[in-house]
Write a structure and sequence with these properties.
mainly alpha; 16 helices; about 80% helix
C-alpha cells in the first residue's frame, strides 16, 4: 500500500473516531433524557457516517473540483434543515443543538484530510465537552448574579477591546500603559479561573479544594472569613484553620505562575524559595487536616466576590503602577534597602502587585537577587498580616493554630534569605 493511501486511511480513521466521540455524547444525552432513538435526528452511527461523509467529500473534490465539496456541504445542510423542520413540528421541540453539531461534525471530518487535522481533533473534543457539560453549565449560570455578569462584560470590553489600543511606549522611565493593563488582565484572569471553579463547588463541601482555590482568588479574604467563622462555629476550629493554611500556602504557587508569565528568566531564582514556602505551608495544613477529620466541612468563601470586575481591576492597575514607581524611585535614590522597604509596604496591601512589579523590572533596573529577596519580603509580610487578622478576629484556638501553621513558611523564607545574603 502506497504512502498516500496510508495517509488517507489514517485521516479517515481519525474522522471516524471524532464522529464516534461526538455521536457517543449525543447518545448519552438521549439516554439521560429518556428519548426514543427514532425521535432524534442522529445517534452514534449517524454521526460517524456524517464525519466520514465530510472527509470523503473533501477527498473526492480533488478529482471532481471544489464545487463537489461545496455541493455536498449544502446538500447535507439542506438534509439537516429538512429533518429539523419535520422533527421540531412533530416533537414540538425547537432545540437545534444536535443539528448544529451534525454540521460541525461534517466540517471536522473534512478538516481531518487537511494539515489542520489536529485542530479538528481539538475542536471535536471541545464540542463533546461543551455538549456533555449542559447540566453543570446551567447550574453555574444559575449561580451567577446580575452584578457579576455585567461586571464581567464591562471588564471583558476594557481588557480585550481597549488593551490592543493602549500605548506600548515607556513614559517617565517606568509607566507603560499596555504592560500595566496586560498584567492586570493576567492576574485577574488567574483569579477568575479559580472563582469560576469554586462556583461549581457545593456550598458546604469540598473544603480542601476551596482552600486551594481560595489562595488563587484571595487568601486574605478567606482567612478573614475563616477568622469570623471561628467565633461562630467553635466545633470547626481545625477545619477553618486548615482552609486558612491551605489558601495561604497556595498563594506561593500562584506567585510562581505570575513570575513565569511576566518574566520567565526570573523563575529559576524565585521558584525554590516560594516552592519551599508552599511545601512547609502544606505540611502544616496536612497536620491541621488530620486534626479536623471528624469536623463537618464548611464554606469559608461565602463573602468572596468575583475578582473579574472593573473597580478592583482599576484599583489594582493604579496600585501596580504606584508600586513600580516606588521601586524605581527607591532603587535610584535609596538603593537596595529602599526596594526592600517598598516590597514590605506593598505586601501589606496586595501580594500580586509587588511580585509582578519586581518581576517586570528584574535584570533591567535591579538584579535577580534583589527581586527574589523583595518578593520573599513581601510574601513574609503578607503572611504575617494574615496571622494578625486571625489574632484580631478569630477565636483563641483558631488564631493559635493559624499562627503555628503559617510560621513554618515564614521561617523557611527567612532562612532562605539569610542563605542568599550570608551564604
Amino acid at each position: 500500500m502506497s504512502e498516500s493511501l496510508l495517509k488517507l486511511l489514517g485521516s479517515l480513521l481519525i474522522a471516524i473516531a471524532l464522529g464516534a466521540l461526538i455521536g457517543a455524547e449525543r447518545g448519552i444525552a438521549r439516554v439521560r433524557q429518556q428519548e426514543d432513538e427514532k425521535s432524534t435526528f442522529a445517534g452514534i452511527r449517524t454521526f460517524i457516517l456524517i464525519s466520514l461523509l465530510g472527509a470523503l467529500s473533501l477527498n473526492f473534490s480533488i478529482y471532481f473540483g471544489k464545487v463537489f465539496f461545496v455541493a455536498s456541504f449544502f446538500g447535507f445542510a439542506l438534509l439537516v434543515t429538512s429533518s429539523y423542520l419535520i422533527t421540531s413540528k412533530r416533537e414540538k421541540d425547537l432545540g437545534t443543538t444536535t443539528e448544529i453539531t451534525a454540521i460541525l461534525t461534517f466540517l471536522y471530518g473534512a478538516l481531518c484530510l487537511t494539515e489542520y487535522r489536529l485542530i479538528a481533533v481539538v475542536l471535536a473534543i471541545f464540542t463533546a465537552v461543551i455538549l456533555y457539560a449542559k447540566k453543570p453549565a446551567h447550574k453555574f449560570i444559575g449561580r451567577i448574579t446580575d452584578d457579576e455578569f455585567y461586571a464581567t462584560l464591562k471588564f471583558a470590553i476594557i481588557a480585550f477591546v481597549i488593551l490592543p489600543f493602549l500605548p506600548k511606549d515607556d513614559y517617565l522611565g517606568f509607566f507603560n500603559p499596555y504592560r500595566i493593563w496586560l498584567i492586570v488582565v493576567i492576574v485577574s484572569g488567574i483569579e477568575f479561573v479559580g472563582y469560576v471553579i469554586m462556583k461549581f463547588m457545593p456550598p458546604r463541601k469540598g473544603i480542601a479544594i476551596m482552600g486551594l482555590l481560595g489562595g488563587i482568588v484571595s487568601s486574605t479574604a478567606l482567612v478573614l472569613n475563616a477568622s469570623r467563622e471561628s467565633k461562630r462555629e467553635g466545633t470547626l476550629t481545625n477545619t477553618l484553620a486548615f482552609s486558612s493554611a491551605l489558601a495561604s500556602s497556595t498563594v506561593f504557587l500562584k506567585l510562581i505562575i505570575e513570575v513565569y508569565i511576566v518574566n520567565k528568566s526570573l523563575v529559576k531564582a524565585v521558584s525554590p524559595p516560594l516552592f519551599l514556602m508552599f511545601v512547609l505551608g502544606m505540611l502544616s495544613a496536612f497536620f491541621l487536616w488530620r486534626r479536623g477529620k471528624g469536623e463537618e466541612a464548611t464554606s469559608t468563601i461565602d463573602d468572596l466576590k468575583s475578582p473579574f470586575t472593573l473597580r478592583p481591576a482599576l484599583k489594582f492597575a493604579v496600585f501596580f503602577a504606584f508600586i513600580i514607581f516606588l521601586v524605581t524611585f527607591a532603587n535610584r535614590y535609596l538603593g537596595v534597602g529602599g526596594v526592600y522597604i517598598t516590597s514590605a509596604i506593598g505586601g501589606l496591601a496586595n501580594l500580586d502587585a509587588p511580585t509582578v512589579s519586581l518581576a517586570s523590572l528584574a535584570y533591567k533596573q535591579i538584579t535577580g537577587e534583589v527581586v527574589t529577596l523583595g518578593i520573599l519580603i513581601a510574601a513574609c509580610v503578607n503572611t504575617i498580616l494574615k496571622v494578625g487578622i486571625a489574632l484580631l478576629l478569630g477565636s483563641k484556638d483558631f488564631s493559635k493554630l493559624v499562627m503555628l501553621s503559617l510560621s513554618f513558611p515564614i521561617i523557611g523564607a527567612i532562612a532562605y534569605m539569610a542563605l542568599i545574603m550570608y551564604g
